[in-house]
Amino acid sequence: MTDSQGDGVGGVTAMDLYEKLTAQGDKVRSLKTAKADKAEVDAAIQLLLKLKVDYKGVSGQDYKAGCPPSESAVVSNNGQSGNGAEEDTVDPWNVATNSAKGVDYDKLIVRFGSSKVDQELVDRIEKVSGQKPHHFLRRGIFFSHRDMHQVLDAYEKQKAFYLYTGRGPSSQAMHVGHLIPFIFTKWLQDVFDIPLVIQLTDDEKYLWKDLTLEDCHRFAVENAKDIIACGFDVNKTFIFSDLDYMGSSPEFYRNVVKIQKHVTFNQVKGIFGFTDSDCIGKISFPAIQAAPSFSNSFPQIFKGRKDVQCLIPCAIDQDPYFRMTRDVAPRIGYPKPALLHSTFFPALQGAQTKMSASDANSSIFLTDTPKQIKNKVNKHAFSGGKDTVEEHRQHGGNPDIDVSFMYLTFFMEDDEKLEKIRQDYSSGALLTGELKKMLIETLQPIITAHQEKRKNVTDEMVKQFMTPRSLDFNF
Ligand code: TRP
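A: This is the predicted complex of the input protein with tryptophan.
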């Protein structure tokens, strides 16, 4: 299945998909009638489901046999319009589900047309990098990917790649969830020893939020300090604010314009749900988030080369941007970026949504004191435990919906210890208060250490990271 089918970008019309769906429906029926091999029937059904998802993405309607798509179809975010209410909502602006366990990530893989990070891929990363895979990989936190095998194939043949990730600086306050992609990206940079570019989309936040340009730019620089505190190698990392870099790099802007020429309003409407009343800045912004995926946007780093493969670690809600990017890439003569997607960091109140920087009680902030951390966890972390100690001892708790346990899967490195906690909590041997205490004791030193490192990040260092320059790498 090609991307253009998955994306509804690049010339695949609702009618094309409707016809494919009708044919695939016939195929499934005839396989069933012929009592074909189960694997074959399953594969055909899988494809049928995927086509239905694509069809909805492009047409905004549910597929109905015998009812071709109508012209007036309303297209919305990832095909979430119409009666898709029971589906999880996952787009760059909203994450919501009705399930206490959180978003159904396996379904998302089918819906987005990405691939699962399976044991084979984790083993391969271990083999190629020569390092024990990060616990985010071992535990399915980075759970989905696009084209990782291709990146590893090339790397094995001494063809390097580069990393690209980013952050929208919407406020000064970053929370622990914001660190997840950066912690993981730092690990990738270390084990593969490759350059990294980090985009701070102060322009995006200006366009979407009620903030001044000055505020957004200031937040970008402040957030850069938290990012630098994650330990990135200054000789291999370029951090940039769009407001600064766009105007100073002709090469970057040329790529933005190229992308803008190859994506229609209709396509971004389908992917992002833009409407006629959205400002034109929003409508053209996806091209700016796409541009760093192409190496010649950074001539100072890649010496003008346009063929260095890019790998983007990000949370899965950013995938719409990169589906669009991957669709455009071959049409403007560039390689498609590969991706590694993470799950969301749940809000303290439960995995129905992700942490939000605008709700102080939903998050553990990087500026919280040990006491604040303790109070927030004790007071707000949703518990999968039973109401009374007696009941809990008898029936045990449910780690799958317990936010403290979920946080430990992100921050406790020791697999055996974590597994023991899971078992003890499930059996009732471990009480909610005790579990919370373990989380508090895990988080406090991590946050304190982060604050120490951030304090040591000087303005001079920020300037160094944010100056366009060549990096310590030979391309
Ligand atoms: N749009 C992202 C946000 O609001 C920021 C971002 C830009 C990003 N480029 C990226 C995130 C690349 C991940 C990867 O946070």
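The first strand starts at residue 89 and ends at 90. The radius of gyration is 23 Å.
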